[in-house]
UniProtKB/TrEMBL annotation:
Top-level lineage group: Bacteria
Pfam families the UniProt entry points to: Inositol_P
Sites where the protein binds Mg(2+) 1: E69, D87, I89, D210
Protein name, per record: Inositol monophosphatase
Organism the protein comes from: Listeria cornellensis FSL F6-0969
């Protein structure tokens, strides 16, 4: 079965999942639990959204695998075959506290190559999509390619306190930039860079589902995605992440490395 059928069904399921999440918010039907610590939250809606995708994928594509945050997929360390990388709600703290600024994130990889990506900001009404080699879009409008020579002094950067604690050399980056912005959802932070609303996003610790879709969309518009030290970032491995427009990525690595 080709990517066209996968794309068609992925869109249908995202729309349905988005409607269900919207209804759960309207009905205030949200049960919250803490996972590893009091700020690492999961809700009944995160779980039911991932379960919905797990069932749909198993029914329609039994040979595909799911790599998802809430454990309805498989333990996956390599990307053979077709793998759906899903974060059912990225930004769960925002979902619980703000009822906005969260997204469903879905990246589809074939033999390790990111082919299709979707980030659905349900309350913000923004549906980001990319198909490898065919451009990236928000609500069907093509996202322009990023400028290659932006400078840090003219840029907004997204770097949270945990990242500055782990990478103290990022403090002077914040001081040199035009300003600091924080959204609290890695996927939307990736999309801020992809759409030019910010020029760099540094995070100390992301998981495959946080970056599976964002990396595909960001790279499609020419953003550079690496680890903080500039080395290759494999999406199957948890770790730090550094995405930026090309000029700002090069400037930070050149002038602000440890
Ligand atoms: C989290 C968010 C947050 C990032 C964390 C992620 P979740 O995802 O993307 O912005 O700083 O590292 O775990 O738990 O809301 O899906
Ligand atoms: Ca996440
Ligand atoms: Ca999540």
């Amino acid at each position: 079965m080709g990517l066209e059928k996968i794309d068609q069904l992925a869109r249908e399921w995202l729309e349905e999942a988005g409607n269900r999440i919207f209804m759960a918010l309207e009905q205030a039907n949200i049960e919250v639990e803490a996972k590893s610590d009091r700020n690492d939250l999961v809700t009944n809606v995160d779980k039911s959204t991932e379960r919905y995708f797990a069932e749909k994928i198993a029914e329609n594509f039994p040979e595909h695998r799911l790599l998802g945050e809430e454990g309805y997929g498989e333990e996956i360390t390599s990307l053979e075959g077709i793998v759906w990388v899903l974060d059912p709600i990225d930004g769960t703290v925002n979902f619980v506290e703000q009822k906005r600024n969260f997204a469903i994130s879905l990246g589809i990889y074939q033999e390790g190559v990111g082919e299709l990506a979707y980030i659905y900001d349900i309350v913000g009404g923004e549906f980001y999509f990319a198909k490898r080699g065919e451009g990236a879009f928000v609500n069907d409008v093509e996202i322009p390619k990023l400028a290659k020579n932006n400078k840090l002094e003219d840029s907004l950067v997204i770097i949270n306190t945990a990242s500055v604690r782990k990478f103290p050399h990022m403090l002077p980056v914040i001081q040199a930039a035009r300003g600091l912005r924080l959204y609290g959802a890695a996927t939307l932070e990736y999309m801020a860079v992809a759409t030019g609303r910010a020029d760099a996003y540094v995070s100390a610790n992301l998981s495959p589902w946080d970056i599976g879709a964002g990396k595909i969309i960001a790279e499609e518009v020419g953003a550079i995605v690496t680890r903080v030290d500039g080395s290759e970032m494999l999406i199957t491995e948890k770790g730090d992440s550094f995405v930026a427009s090309p000029g700002v990525h090069a400037e930070i690595l050149r002038d602000y490395s440890r």
